[in-house]
Amino acid sequence: MSDTKIGLWLVGAWGGVATTVAVGLAALQEGLTPEFGLVSALPKFQELDLIDWDQLVIGGHEIRDLSYGQAASQLNGRSGVFSTELLDAIASRLAVFDDNVRPGTLINVGKTISSLAGRRTKSLDKERPVAAIERISTDLNEFRERHELDHVIVMNLASTEPSLDDKVGSLSWQELSKKLENARTSPLPASSIYAVAAMLSECSYVNFTPSSGSNLPVLEELALQQGVLHYGRDGKTGETLMKSVLAPMFANRNLKVLSWVGHNIFGNLDGKVLDDPVNKANKVRSKDHLLTEILGYKPQTLVSIEYIESMGDWKTAWDHIHFQGFLNTKMMLQFTWQGCDSLLAAPLVLDLVRFTEREWRQGKSGLMTHLASFFKSPMGTVVPEFGRQFQLLEAWANGVIDGKNV
Amino acid sequence: MSDTKIGLWLVGAWGGVATTVAVGLAALQEGLTPEFGLVSALPKFQELDLIDWDQLVIGGHEIRDLSYGQAASQLNGRSGVFSTELLDAIASRLAVFDDNVRPGTLINVGKTISSLAGRRTKSLDKERPVAAIERISTDLNEFRERHELDHVIVMNLASTEPSLDDKVGSLSWQELSKKLENARTSPLPASSIYAVAAMLSECSYVNFTPSSGSNLPVLEELALQQGVLHYGRDGKTGETLMKSVLAPMFANRNLKVLSWVGHNIFGNLDGKVLDDPVNKANKVRSKDHLLTEILGYKPQTLVSIEYIESMGDWKTAWDHIHFQGFLNTKMMLQFTWQGCDSLLAAPLVLDLVRFTEREWRQGKSGLMTHLASFFKSPMGTVVPEFGRQFQLLEAWANGVIDGKNV
Amino acid sequence: MSDTKIGLWLVGAWGGVATTVAVGLAALQEGLTPEFGLVSALPKFQELDLIDWDQLVIGGHEIRDLSYGQAASQLNGRSGVFSTELLDAIASRLAVFDDNVRPGTLINVGKTISSLAGRRTKSLDKERPVAAIERISTDLNEFRERHELDHVIVMNLASTEPSLDDKVGSLSWQELSKKLENARTSPLPASSIYAVAAMLSECSYVNFTPSSGSNLPVLEELALQQGVLHYGRDGKTGETLMKSVLAPMFANRNLKVLSWVGHNIFGNLDGKVLDDPVNKANKVRSKDHLLTEILGYKPQTLVSIEYIESMGDWKTAWDHIHFQGFLNTKMMLQFTWQGCDSLLAAPLVLDLVRFTEREWRQGKSGLMTHLASFFKSPMGTVVPEFGRQFQLLEAWANGVIDGKNV
Amino acid sequence: MSDTKIGLWLVGAWGGVATTVAVGLAALQEGLTPEFGLVSALPKFQELDLIDWDQLVIGGHEIRDLSYGQAASQLNGRSGVFSTELLDAIASRLAVFDDNVRPGTLINVGKTISSLAGRRTKSLDKERPVAAIERISTDLNEFRERHELDHVIVMNLASTEPSLDDKVGSLSWQELSKKLENARTSPLPASSIYAVAAMLSECSYVNFTPSSGSNLPVLEELALQQGVLHYGRDGKTGETLMKSVLAPMFANRNLKVLSWVGHNIFGNLDGKVLDDPVNKANKVRSKDHLLTEILGYKPQTLVSIEYIESMGDWKTAWDHIHFQGFLNTKMMLQFTWQGCDSLLAAPLVLDLVRFTEREWRQGKSGLMTHLASFFKSPMGTVVPEFGRQFQLLEAWANGVIDGKNV
User: Fold this and answer.
1) Distance between alpha carbon A61 and the CA centroid of its chain, in Å?
2) How far apart are CA C290 and CA C260, in angstroms?
3) Could you tell me if the ipTM is greater than 0.85?
4) Is residue B406 over pLDDT 70?
């Protein structure tokens, strides 16, 4: 693995998660932090021969005018997660990453996200879909060439976009690309535009958000045609992770879940965007389908996500699970999860890049269902339990290792 | 299965769990309650052709003078778990079970438990070990004959006994039986005396408590020699179940558990017995080893069990888990489990009887590691995660069904 | 006090709170229950010489067709709060109360409440406001005469009605009564129609709900003119009680409350009615103003009330309080309140009747600000702290006792 | 007030609370932090004309070899409570305070505390009681003179010492001082030795810990004789503050508290010292008497304090309150308090100095019962409710202001 170089292209490059990815990667490259929170650092994955931290370079798209230094400093001010010493020690690495950030697109991101746009992005306001795709592709190609990268993996970390009426249905890629050529308004949401551009540039694409991304039949076709990998959706970091861990217990013990109430409060930018109901609907849907899949019936559920400014990046979830046991006795489980959202998500982004690169190195393309454990709504699989999803990852790793040793 | 009849012999027959087993079985036999809480009632186990509720008869040993009617009424008064209507409807069934209850033994149960003994048991105070074993065996044989039972399964549900210095070490059964013959004071705790008596009477033995039971090399030898099944220890119903479900999540996500504090409060008789430090030590040990096994390192842990009278049978556990994620960030998970202990345990006892009978029907003897998911300290296995333990049960069931269908 | 007889007239007579009032009063009259939960039973109020339980008779208005027996049995089925033995022992007393229940009015109660109406009430659907007032007055007078009551106290326990645009403003009673005479649609909500009818019949009126009731200048005028007492609004039983107890601590310690999030889940009829946003708005307002009054500034607040059917009458509130201390350090307090709503409210209703009767016995009329501690939005006072409100009650009691002893 | 200068002498000068006092005072003097958490900064106390921050100078006794810079940096490393920027900005002020710190005494502090002693203090190991008193007095006098202070207030912030058999009983000061003169082993614990020395040097003395301090009849005599003020014991910052706020609610609502369980976990030095049972007993006693005083009966209570290293200075308390309401219904309140102990305590120390100085300025001596709200076990008062205690402070302030304005 010694000379491969991989680009990690972050959509939403100066957002909370992406900034933490950049800070974390820089800290790992400097040897300034242990590898807690990184799944790929578990002993059981050591034989996979995954890429090292210094084989990774960060770039990305962003609609705001900012920098990693500023974003990290804001995040720290609100949530107290980085030490000033650390930020000082990695400042020059962050500056290098900053140079790779290009203006994003506002196509179909909704009013709330649009209102955050900075000068650089606003000037591209009238861009047609096809022009946006070309521009994004150019940025990716230029990034790959300038840094002499073997492969680029595009990771969607942008705030949740409103869900779009399906305007592309079962179109083939040929039909869609024709349609795009002439369109003034895009039949695709922003996340899918990035996915198209990524695939056309022969980059892999991973969607860490509930937005559509590559989750359309036509993009699965395109991925296979282009020989790239893709996967998603919606990183599973907190309350939903807990659900996918706890619900199997109730199912296996035949304890009937009567109701599952989950309230989430937090105060970062994602929370502000989710305060807009059209953005929130997309997110709530992604958090709610799981229980029915695991339990085999639908208990009464409630998921609320509320923007509470003082919380900063610290997401606190209170869940109340009411269940019925033997002789109809009703019992309760409550939990409170107090996690720092960006710090939970960022290491998973780095894991996904390493695992995706490993699969790419094997010459594979299309969906990566062995990554299901990382997502709230994993594509192409019907395994909803976290434990079984993780076994898919272990099985894949064993397969790769065996193949390597043949 | 139509004409098999199975005896369920409860040690601690009028205790909270056993009383709930009796009430629950009677209610199931009358068709007055659904099967929530019963693992064996899950659709995935239907093809196993497990015995029906009316194929079971209850008997047992008990040191107090009581009856199911009285015990159920006390439990209800303290914890409000049964309806008066239900207790009325099953009164005659409970009376039949009462007729099968015989005085237990006080050998090595410790001062706190001894102090609870009623007149019937006290009169047996000076009984030698070998006499106790013979008496218990006679009770079991008489029960089997009188009810024309095909097999009897002895289930230890008695309060936790103090742990005993190991006095039998690696003795063979031949050596131990010689030693027992002459002993005035028993080298075995009460739970093992019941286990010996059960095995000698060709009954299977399951230990739902942290007491020693059949967990001695010499008893494993005896079980195989007698062709009976046995398993244990310590039913996994609440906080420890949660640990075995949650800890794998931290392990798989490489989140370092810094400390795991668990406080348990409840007010039933078991709680009162555990207020005696010699009894409690045994229990705490059983709740605490798990985390190290799952995580692969030992976080700071604290397990407290406190008798709070007003709680009755409602066990409330508060757990505080402090963990370290990416970039050393410390985060917290807290949960409060509010479960009715007897109502959580009782259905598992019925499950264990059904699964044990199924294995006995196949002609097997010795340990039943596929039952690991039911226990805090499962014997003969190194799988501590609940999810994987449950997969052992599923795999066993698939094997039995496949065998049946050949 | 030996021969006074007082009528307690419940609006929403067969609802959860009112049914618990009736069950509780009957149980107290039979000597079947201790006096926990009753403020008026505290030693410090013994010298007040309050009326005894058997001096009270219950009647009321209700829009559904039901009975106390049925209502109590439903409440018990959903929430397990009464024992069957108790309900049997007081059945005949409940039947007597049932005979005093008359059909309520649907004027301005909103669609959700209207949909619950039974046959008796539906037949009065087209009733004009003035006719409703007359009918209600007749019911009250007839109740007083038939039971030879010295005084009748009307207590509003009906589900929260939608808030009405203020259509009466600063009208005098003369102007309003003229307006009412000709009106087809009522300028008053249902709760105020009951208040008017009560006052015209020389009954006192207490409003245990967030509905308008007597909280209009014109009704304060009418109360004084008629020489009756009145007070409200919105019984303070759970989460808001906690707020009025905890917020002064933060204020007195100069700890800045950054945000106070409160989520309430429960599954009784009130909850169902509050699931209608127009009804809920009224309730949330009543729960939310308090913090600003106590703290002197407005932290970010969130109050949600959600109908979760499985919870029955057990209201669970989770509150998360985020506060800033010395050197800007952010800290947290969370609480979970698990209370049975009707059981918390019912004794306060009985307290209010006893305290109101005592004031009536003194010949007073108008507002009773010494009862502020019982209400979320106490009328005519600016003391929001529970502790200080309770001191008003103590001071009043001392005054009454001193007066008596003069 | 413009030219008064007051010394704040901290016993346990480099401990967590004292270090936070020093950091906080320096930050206030520099105008770098708002006054949250400071009771004395409330608008209602503005007319008291309390001393300004820059009129205070810090000195103290300490048994370890350390400095404010080091202690603050350790505290920050473990608990993340100060910003590096702040510590840099106040470094020179902290250095000045460091110059005023002298070696403490190890007399009767117990084994656990003794084991923490540094070189400076160890060298004083054999010091006789009377020599210790003289040395401490000399330190205080020298501090006063060097800084030209008008008054010095000694504040005990040292870790909880083991409780001592009462060896001084009802001795008069004359008898005790004679006894001390010859004693090789002290009849007084360390905290009382400091109190004696303070009083002899005409300093006021406030005891923020559960140790004995000035809580002996003979020291009350001495205080009056010397014309100094004194008060204590045990600052009320977290769980006990909550108890003194919540218990009155249960009392006033006649809700019977069945059990009150409180578990405290934290990982600072105080916690480590409290891990020694002889030290812990003193603390638990101080936390537990309150409920009986407020409720008027003794519910089952449990208070545990556990040292969990990972928690650092963040004390988390889980309290479970089980109570019985109307018709015997059992309900629950649980709370989790997540507070940073030193940050909660430090501002109260500064408040106590300001309020004590104000009383000293009035020429008073003896106990200061108006400071009851600051303490778990306030001396000389029987008012246990926080609300009423706070009203004592308000009444005192009003009295002082009125006196001033006469």
Assistant:
1) 14
2) 12
3) yes
4) no
Q: Are residues D187 and D216 in the same domain?
A: yes
Residue B270: helix, strand or coil by DSSP? helix
Give which of D76, D253, D335, D394 to mutate to test C binding, by max C Cβ within 10 Å: D253
In a domain, C1, yes or no: no
Whether C156 and C252 map to the same domain: the answer is no
Question: Who has greater pLDDT, D168 or B330?
Answer: B330
Gyration radius of chain A's alpha carbons: 21
Same domain membership, residue B224 and residue B258: no
For residue B404, how many C-alpha atoms fall within 13 Å in the half-sphere facing its CB? Answer: 14
Token pair for residue A343?
């710090």
Percent pLDDT > 90 in chain C is: 77
Contact D357, D50 (CB under 8 A): yes
User: By the 8 A CB rule, do C173 and C133 touch?
Assistant: no
Coil, helix or strand for B257? strand
Nearest to B259 by CA among B302, B203, B208: B302
Question: In total, how many domains does chain A have?
Answer: 2
Q: Is residue C210 part of a domain?
A: yes
In angstroms, rounded to a whole number, what is the distance separating the alpha carbons of residues B24 and D350? Answer: 62
**Per the CB < 8 Å rule, is C83 touching B84?**
yes
- Residue C285 — pLDDT band, cuts 50, 70, 90? confident
Q: Which domain holds residue B298?
A: 239-339
Strands B314-324 and B256-266: antiparallel
Q: What is the CATH number of the domain that holds D313?
A: 3.30.360.10
Nearest-angstrom CA–CA distance, A228 and A230: 7
Give the pLDDT confidence score for residue A406 in this predicted structure. Answer: 61
B351 or B82: whose pLDDT is higher?
A: B351
Last residue of a domain, which of C288, C317, C339?
Answer: C339
What residues of A are in contact with residue B325 (Cβ under 8 Å)? 36-37, 339-340, 343-344, 347
Query: How confident is the model over C298-325, as a mean pLDDT?
Result: 94
Average pLDDT, chain D: 93
Could you report the per-residue pLDDT of C322-361, keeping only the tens digit for each? Answer: 999 999 999 999 999 999 999 999 999 999 999 999 999 9
- Residue of D326, D350, D373 to mutate, testing the C interface (most C Cβ within 10 Å of its Cβ): D326
In chain C, what residues touch A302 (CB-CB under 8 Å)? 265, 306, 308
Cα–Cα distance for residue pair D214/D12, rounded to 1 Å = 16
Answer whether residue D32 is part of any domain: yes
Check whether residue C59 and residue C105 sit in a common domain. Answer: yes
CA A315 to chain centre: 17
Indicate if B374 and B362 belong to the same structural domain.
yes
Residue reference for tokens 């889940």: C265
The reply to whether D26 and D50 lie within a common domain is yes
Cβ of A327 and B86 within 8 Å?
A: yes
- In a shared domain, residues C55 and C126: yes
Closest chain D residue to A334, measured at CA: D334
Is A1 domain-assigned? no
Q: Counting Cβ atoms within 10 Å, is residue B1 exposed (0-12), middle (13-18) or buried (19+)?
A: exposed
> What was the pLDDT predicted at A359?
97
Residue after which a domain boundary falls, among C339, C354, C376: C339
Q: What is the number of other CB atoms lying within 10 angstroms of the CB of residue A33?
A: 18
What phi and psi, each to the nearest 5 degrees, are found at residue A261?
-105, 130
Q: Are residues D82 and D141 in the same domain?
A: yes
Per the DSSP assignment, residues forming a β-bridge with D307 are D266
Q: What is the CATH number of the domain that holds A111?
A: 3.40.50.720
Dihedral-angle region of residue D366 (phi above 0 means left; psi in -120 to 50 means alpha; beta otherwise): left
Residues of D with CB under 8 A from a CB of A: 80, 83-85, 336
CA-to-CA distance for C222 and C230, rounded, in angstroms? 10
Q: Which pTM value belongs to this model? A: 0.94
Q: What pLDDT is recorded for position C406?
A: 62
| pLDDT tens digits for range A42-90 | 999 999 999 999 999 999 999 999 999 999 999 988 888 888 889 999 9
